[in-house]
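Troubleshooting log. The previous structure file for this entry was overwritten by mistake, so regenerating from the original sequence record. Sequence copied from the archived sheet and checked twice against the printout by T.R.
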Amino acid sequence: MNPVISPISSDPLDAGEKEATVAGPAELVLRAEAPTSYSTRELKAFEKLILEGGEVSSQGLAERIRSAAVLIMLSKHGMLIGIAALKRPEPGYRVRVAEKSGVSVTAAGYPYELGWVYVIPAESGSKHSYRLMDAAVVAGGVAGIFATTRTDNGAMHHILPRYGFLRVGAPYKSSRGNYCLTVFVRSARKTGGPLTEPNR
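Regenerated output below.
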């Protein structure tokens, strides 16, 4: 059974309060809220899972977490098992992505970047990535969203199109390692949420 997510505000990103209510398996708790709604301990746990993913620099990470629009945390029996976020990328980062990929990701067109999507290995295969994505697209409302993912990340390349993301531009080499990144975009729309119910 999948959690059913409903936003408290019809336009949560403008409201300044990012929150979702969840109905689903009793042992799962899914939260999608502004960073200020979480405790210091919860933010540290979120940061720890990002670093476990192994693709993000720890330098300035705590500050980037606090500057995000929405942090999404999925817990099971009180243990954090999955995370995602809608980030507010800095202008310089947007310029670098555009220069390397050939895709314009301006703040006007894509205010938010989907990122830090990670599920712990012990929960692999449990469809938790869909739960995180459900929360992300609901929190994003009608706003445009972009994402960058490794070209060899088959799971994300499979999931993103199911939520209306299109692969665009040219793959480019990451500054973090010997791998390439691909840009996906989900343009602004008249109504929020997934285009269709994903086939899981």
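Confidence is low (pLDDT under 50) at residues 1-23. Archived copy saved in two places this time.
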